[in-house]
Amino acid sequence: MGFFSRFSPIAAYRDLRLFFSQRRPYELVFLVAALGVTSFLIYAFMKDSYVEKEYRPKIIYVEQWPADRTDAQIVAQQKIDAPIQAKRLAEQKAREDAQRASFKRLDDKLKAMGI
């Protein structure tokens, strides 16, 4: 602990300023370049260290129907399920249209650039 009791931030700042004042300009340029390259490599390794999420199965529950149900029961259930399915299909179509529009905007931008 004796090391930290002798440490002074003001003295460290003065020492660093004295060190930089005795350097030539090209040495400072190379120092900045070395710090930039090192920082970029550390950032790239941190960005690349991707950990996959834990796999969780998507469970889909289905309704079970008796094998001897009548046609009237089937039609009644279809009438109940029709609006729900229509809503789900409309939401899916809206998502697809939004995705298609975003791809078209990107394609138009790329064509404007000549790509």
Determine the structural class based on helices, strands and strand pairing: mainly alpha
From the N-terminal CA to the C-terminal CA, the straight-line distance is 63 Å
**What do the pLDDT scores average to?**
90
Helix content: over 70%
Beta fraction? under 5%
Global morphology: elongated
CA gyration radius, whole angstroms: 33 Å
Poorly predicted parts: none
Strand tally: 0
Order of helices and strands: HHHH
Number of helices, where a helix is a run of at least 4 consecutive DSSP H or I residues: 4
Largest sheet: none
Outline of this structure?
With 115 residues, the protein is mainly alpha-helical. Helices cover 73% and strands 0% of the residues.
Task: Please tag this protein with its features.
115 residues, single chain, elongated, 4 helices, 73% helix
Write structural notes for this entry:
The chain is mainly α and 115 residues long. It contains 4 helices and no strands. The longest helix has 43 residues. The two termini are 63 Å apart.
Topology (elements, then pairings):
Blueprint: H1 2-5, H2 9-21, H3 25-48, H4 71-113
